[in-house]
Each structure stands twice: as C-alpha cells, then as structure tokens.
Amino acid sequence: MRLFVAVCIGLVLSGGYAAAQQPSGEQLFVLPPQGWKIGFHDRQGNVEVTEVLPPDQTVQEWTEMLAVQVVIGKGQKMPQEVLKEQMSDIQKDCTDVGAGAVSLGVENGYDTAIRAIACTRLKKWPKGELGLYKVLRGRDRLYIVSRSWRGEPFEKSQLPLPPETTQAWLAFMQQVVLCDTRDPKRPCPKEGSQPGR
Question: What is the pLDDT of residues 42-81, one digit of tens each?
C-alpha cells in the first residue's frame, strides 16, 4: 500500500502511485512500511500533520512512527533552517540531545536536507527518541518527513538502533518524492516505477 500525499486534497491511501484522478500541482509521494495505518491527521491554519503507525500501535503508545508535516505558503525557509529549528524544539523537551550533520541536496529540482536527531531522555517521561528528518522545499509548500523510534533512555555514545535500521531509514527517505504536474522538470512517479529514481 502506498500513501499518496496530494496536499490539495489531503492524504489519500491508494494502491499505487497513479491514482485514478490525481490532482494537478505540487504533490508529495511517501511509501510507508507495509501494513502501517494513519493514526492521526489534522490541519490547523497553514499546517497539516499526519502520523502513520504500525498496526499494533497508537499515537499515545508507539515505538515507531512516520510523520508528514506540510506547511502551506510561499517564501518558506531553507531546509537547513527548518532542521535547525527542529533541533531547538527537541532540545526544549529533552535532557540531552545529539545530532548528525545536515546533509543538503537537490532532488527532482527541489532543495532538501536530512538530519538525524537523538533525544536521550524526554523530560516528561522516561523515554528516549531517535528520528531521521527530511525537509523538502517546494514551490507552494514546505514538507517535513520523519521516521522516529521511541524506547528506553540511552546514551548519545550508544544509539539504540542497529546500523541496518539506519540504512533502511535512509533508503526510505530516498523513496520520498516531491513533484509537480505543472512542471516537466519535476516529474511525478508513474505507476510501477521506482520512486525517488
């Protein structure tokens, strides 16, 4: 199952990249892990948030989560600025924070940035969190996609996930595609095609 994020109509679950009637304009395509479901979706003002979870987890009790945040409006900040703000927000809720370097790029003609951020222990309860964040700066909107893990507190020197999980998350982020049906230089994935390629 593929999660097709067409911002003008919200989030739609579809069986493939080519929906029967795709809207025109800027679109974000995300391929969540098989069997995951939308646990939360809301829009307040110009910000739309969707959280996708494994079938046995909830937004209150989770160990893995995929989140997509869409900020509507032109003149958005550069992706690296958004990641810096994300880091500041996480620091407010954590006793100690670590982060990897920001990786900048251009994908399908859009500025992007990726960064891993670790919260060793949350201030509210005894849990730690680790997330990989990808920011895509579109023409009409800004997109923040994250894969996160939550579990027992940990030390920055000993991250709680094995290297193969990190590689899987990076591969997942490469499959996130931002495109625009109005612009042939920013093509959308076709049915049966490999996303992100």
Answer: 999 999 999 999 999 999 999 999 999 999 886 678 999 9
- Whole-angstrom distance, CA of residue 196 vs CA of residue 51: 21
> CA of 192: how far to CAs of 2, 90, 183, 186, 195, in Å?
12, 38, 21, 18, 9
What one-character-per-residue DSSP string does 135-165 give? EEE-SSEEEEEEEEEEES---TTS-SS-HHH
For residue range 130-155, list pLDDT tens digits in order.
999 999 999 989 999 999 999 999 99
Sign of CA dihedral 181, 86, 161, 33: negative
How does DSSP assign 74-90, residue by residue?
Answer: SSPPPHHHHHHHHHHHH
Give the CATH fold of the 37-162 domain.
Protein Transport Mog1p; Chain A (3.40.1000)
pTM: 0.86
d(CA 15, CA 99): 36
Q: ∠ at Cα 67 (61, 69), nearest 5°?
A: 135
68 closest CA partner among 167, 150, 176, 156: 176
Cα(49)–Cα(41) distance, integer angstroms: 6
What's the rounded mean pLDDT across residues 96-101? 93
Alpha carbon distance 131, 173 (integer Å): 12
